[in-house]
Amino acid sequence: MAYNEKLAERIRDILSTQPKVEEKKMMGGLTFMVNKKMCVGILGDDLMVRIDPLVYESALQRKGCREMDFTGRPMKGFVFVNSEGTKSARDLSYWIDLALQFNKKAKASPKRKK
User: Fold this and answer.
1) What's the pLDDT score for residue 74?
2) What is the per-residue pLDDT for 106?
3) Hey, which end of the chain has fewer CB within 10 Å, N or C?
4) Among residues 27, 103, 30, which one has the least CA distance to residue 69?
5) Is 113 part of a structural domain of the chain?
6) What CATH number is associated with residue 30?
7) What is the DSSP string of 48-92?
8) If pLDDT is split at 50, 70 and 90, which confidence band does 1 have?
9) C-alpha closest to that of 31 among 87, 105, 85, 109
């Protein structure tokens, strides 16, 4: 699945002030890792956001947001936001800021043995 390159550029611009940002192609899209932890990503035209599970329910009330059901089951702490919810710079910044806030306390996935 291809990802929205225009959205990727907008995310890169916002994350350019963050140290330790890495891009990885993952899950058929593009994922932005901050401090070696998954932060935000793009699948098709949707923004995937890793958020604090404590704000999950309130996040779902925002324009364009829905539960992430990539595996067929909702994943608490992850949401998808469609293009309606990321149209303005302010809206996109809101979601990235929310992900960055959680990133500070999120745990990194354990490294896999080769």
Assistant:
1) 82
2) 87
3) C
4) 27
5) no
6) 3.90.1150.30
7) EEE--GGGHHHHTTSTTEEE--TTSS--TTEEEE-GGGSSSHHHH
8) low
9) 109
